[in-house]
Amino acid sequence: MKSLILDSSTRLLVLTGAGVSAESGVPTFRGMGGLWENRPVEEVASPQGFTEDPVRVWRFYSQRREGAAGVHPNPGHTALAEWERHLGDRFLLATQNVDGLHQRAGSQRVVEMHGNLFKTRCSNCERPPMDDTTVYPEGTVPRCGACGGSLRPHIVWFGENLDEADLGRIGEFLTRGDGKLVFLAAGTSGAVWPAAGLVDQVRKLGGETWLVNFDPPENAERFRHFVQGRSGELLPRLATLA
Which CATH number applies to 4-26+73-114+162-241? Predict the structure, then answer.
């Protein structure tokens, strides 16, 4: 297997998707067949769904919190944390996952593109998102202590835009100009934008592109290097730290 060289001239952007978390036992929307309790997941993962039935939405996310709290980072998460310790500020991890497993493995330079399952924000006021690991009882819709509005999970739902600050942080890292730019995607479907377009941005900047995935995703042909297999098995032996 060809080695990814991480030396003193390397600037590495990593993108992780649901496949990385799935190897720890976190269910994915695809694994759920796009359904929850025989209903489309959009009903519990969209602003419209929250407006129509916030109780149902909170039941879904409380179940997800309970399930995610019982899983642990896998060797893929640990490898990425080790790479970050080696590269320091020349490393950035952008994740589509919301389970916090990267941070639990030791990663610190993380952009959570789709939010965090263990954070809550107000649907009514500008109160900053707050840490919240509560598994709410059936029928509960928590209220904001500042304005009394309904609290919602701090998740980017279907039909919502990603945080401009998060996109800006990724863009600044890509165009910083120091060192050799390398991009690695792991466990992604290659179908969710704008994350699926990062490989094209890196190619335009002359960067090196790597893909680690169990199945070839939709955008596999746009990567220079494709290593097929489970990220938890491949990432720990993919890189050479120089």
Answer: 3.40.50.1220
Q: Report, as an integer, the average pLDDT of 33-39.
A: 75
The residue annotated as part of the active site, out of 102, 114, 154, 225, is 114
Burial class (CB in 10 A: 0-12, 13-18, 19+), 58: buried
What are 176-195's pLDDT values in tens digits?
988 899 999 999 988 788 88
Residue 72 among the catalytic residues = no
Is the bond preceding residue 216 a cis peptide, omega within 30 degrees? no
- CATH 3.30.1600.10 given to domain 35-70+122-155: yes
pTM over 0.70: yes
Rounded Cα distance, 214 and 212, in Å:
7
The pLDDT > 70 percentage for the chain reads 98
Contact between 87 and 72 (Cβ < 8 Å) = no
Q: Which ranges in the chain are annotated with CATH 3.40.50.1220?
A: 4-26+73-114+162-241
Q: Which long-range contacts (CB under 8 A, 24 or more apart) does 160-167 make?
A: 160/47, 162/113, 162/114, 162/194, 163/113, 166/94, 166/111, 166/112, 166/113, 167/194
Assess contact for 209 and 2: CB atoms under 8 A: no
pLDDT confidence of 35, banded at 50, 70, 90? confident
What is the C-alpha separation between 110 and 151, in angstroms, rounded? 24
Return the pLDDT at 36. 82
Span 91-96, average pLDDT: 98
